[in-house]
């Protein structure tokens, strides 16, 4: 289920782990330094508390027959139905973290991706079937639920307050072992390691630690010395596939917001600022000089979405964003991390530098549809073709798939991003009303269209509301 993904990460030196690892972060009161010695750190209470809320997640799929469309196939049958392949049964495992007493569990999306059966083993050894509540590929998070009450769970800490050098613990089920605890320190924040670079609207702002984490730790907890959740472990840097120095966790502030959205709405209500940001660290000396600052800190605006939140609030290309709601941003990942905590229509105060002066503006954040004009269909994002595009392709109607998402369209077909849909269930598509009429009370869906630059039409069929 995850082998191709893992092979890719092995080659790049980045490995996604399949188990929980909880890292304990140390607060300022946890230790006292003096010139002679440092007080020893006792993780016993934190480990005892956190391990009760970390679970073992096992997933499986049955054998499947799939069809791969081949535009260069010689026969009509092969062109229409594609070449047949049989995928053998697959299984995998990882970790998860209980976040409330009612059985909601946070794990990584890659742990449960495409799973048909999800089994969760609690700390007391009890195994239960888990229901998938929702997923968010942009943050690599998913929420599960088991039917059980009065469970031990972890409280969320404020990941903005995590400091470099702070002690943390990683707790999980690596290498198919029983629950395992390792310790380390926070070695970096807002780290982007590029594992989601092909995912639209991806948010990578990892907490980097040197706690030992191995395959099987994904979805596990990173906790501080109080046993509170600092992050969800998601990946490691390794040339071999095993631990070799650094691990990466999704900050708890992102986890808290995404999990709450998935539980309440079934999907993430993601806010957008409507800018094209650039790390000032990569700017030229000439670009830096224009800000007239002794110390450059912030994210430069190099592009604005028309009628986006930032543009409507008066921000301009060239402005240097330095803080969001008084939380400093030093890089694009840190800016994306802060915006990811909010919902569309939330107001945030943006502190920025323009023409040698410090300024602030109140910005009302917007949704992706409001910012980019993209909408959702069968779990995928799309937008209608512009008049110029329709003229270019010689058609009168159509919409383009801009992101596959994780709905029935992506899961049940081999459709690719960039496909242009011209008809759904034999109904030509030019408006949202036509889409609604085409799929109204339908369980079986057939879409028709084409790929720009390729000859011929393509047809994909799948089921909804199963």
Mean pLDDT: 83
The CATH class designation of the largest domain is Mainly Beta
**Could you say how many structural domains there are in total?**
3
Level-2 CATH architecture of the largest domain: Beta Barrel
Low-confidence stretches: 1-15, 18-37, 71-80
Instruction: Order the strands across the largest sheet as they lie in space.
Output: 8-7-2-5-6-10-9
What does this protein look like?
This protein is α+β, with helices and mostly antiparallel strands and 466 residues long. It folds into three domains: 1-268, Thrombin, subunit H (Beta Barrel); 275-369, Pdz3 Domain (Roll); 374-463, PDZ domain (Pdz3 Domain). 18% of the residues lie in helices and 35% in strands. It is built from twelve helices and 29 strands. Strands 8-7-2-5-6-10-9 form a seven-stranded antiparallel beta sheet. Strands 23, 24, 25, 26, 27, 28 and 29 form a seven-stranded antiparallel beta sheet that branches. Strands 11-12-13-16-15-14 form a six-stranded antiparallel beta barrel. A hairpin with a 7-residue loop joins strand 11 and strand 12 (180-191). The protein is globular, with a radius of gyration of 24 Å. The two termini are 22 Å apart.
Outline the secondary-structure elements:
Layout: H1 3-12, E1 14-16, H2 44-51, E2 54-61, E3 64-68, H3 76-81, E4 83-87, E5 90-98, E6 104-108, H4 109-112, E7 117-121, E8 127-129, E9 131-136, E10 141-145, E11 167-172, E12 180-191, E13 206-209, E14 221-223, E15 229-237, E16 246-251, H5 252-265, E17 275-279, H6 285-289, E18 299-304, H7 309-312, E19 320-324, E20 327-328, H8 332-339, E21 347-354, E22 357-364, H9 368-372, E23 375-377, E24 380-384, H10 387-393, E25 399-403, H11 408-412, E26 420-424, E27 427-428, H12 432-439, E28 444-450, E29 458-463
Antiparallel strand pairs: 1-15, 2-5, 2-7, 3-4, 5-6, 6-10, 7-8, 9-10, 11-12, 11-14, 12-13, 13-16, 14-15, 15-16, 17-18, 18-19, 19-20, 19-21, 21-22, 23-24, 24-25, 25-26, 26-27, 26-28, 28-29
């Amino acid at each position: 289920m995850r082998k191709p993904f893992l092979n890719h990460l092995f080659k790049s030196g980045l490995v996604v782990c399949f188990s929980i690892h909880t890292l304990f972060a140390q607060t300022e009161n946890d230790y006292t330094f003096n010139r002679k010695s440092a007080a020893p750190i006792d993780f016993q209470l934190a480990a005892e508390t956190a391990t009760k809320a970390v679970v073992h997640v096992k997933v499986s799929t049955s054998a499947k027959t799939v069809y791969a469309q081949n535009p260069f196939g010689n026969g009509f049958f092969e062109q229409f139905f594609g070449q047949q392949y049989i995928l053998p049964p697959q299984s995998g495992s990882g970790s998860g973290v209980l976040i409330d007493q009612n059985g909601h569990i946070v794990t990584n999306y890659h742990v449960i991706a495409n799973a048909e059966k999800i089994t969760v083993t609690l700390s007391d050894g009890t195994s239960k079937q888990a229901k998938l509540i929702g997923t968010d590929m942009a943050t690599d998070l998913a929420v599960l639920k088991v039917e059980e009450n009065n469970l031990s769970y972890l409280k969320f800490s404020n990941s903005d307050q995590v400091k470099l050098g702070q002690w943390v613990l990683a707790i999980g089920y690596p290498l198919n072992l029983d629950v395992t605890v390792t310790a380390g320190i926070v070695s970096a924040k807002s780290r982007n390691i590029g594992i989601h670079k092909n995912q639209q609207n991806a948010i990578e702002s990892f907490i980097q630690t040197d706690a030992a984490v191995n395959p099987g730790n994904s979805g596990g907890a990173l906790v501080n010395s109080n046993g509170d959740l600092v992050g969800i472990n998601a990946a490691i840097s390794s040339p071999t596939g095993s631990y070799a120095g650094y691990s990466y966790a999704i900050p708890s502030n992102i986890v808290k917001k995404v999990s709450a959205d998935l539980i309440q709405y079934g999907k993430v209500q993601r806010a957008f600022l409507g800018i094209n940001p650039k790390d000032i660290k990569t700017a030229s000396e000439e670009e830096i000089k224009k800000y007239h600052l002794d110390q450059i800190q912030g994210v430069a605006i190099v592009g604005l979405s028309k009628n986006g939140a930032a543009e409507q609030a008066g921000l301009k290309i060239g402005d240097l964003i330095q803080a969001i709601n008084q939380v400093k941003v030093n890089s694009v990942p840190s800016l994306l991390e802060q915006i990811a905590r909010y919902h569309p229509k939330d107001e945030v105060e943006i502190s920025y530098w323009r023409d040698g002066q410090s300024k602030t503006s109140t910005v009302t954040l917007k949704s992706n549809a409001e910012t980019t004009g993209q909408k959702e269909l069968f779990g995928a994002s799309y937008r209608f073709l512009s008049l110029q595009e329709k003229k270019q392709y010689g058609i009168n109607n159509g919409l383009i798939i801009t992101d596959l998402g994780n709905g029935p369209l992506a899961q049940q077909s081999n459709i690719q991003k960039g496909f242009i849909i011209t008809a759904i269930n034999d109904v030509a598509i030019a408006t949202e009303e036509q889409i609604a009429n085409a799929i109204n009370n339908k369980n079986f869906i057939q879409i028709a269209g084409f790929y720009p630059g390729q000859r011929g039409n393509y047809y994909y069929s799948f089921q909804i509301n199963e």
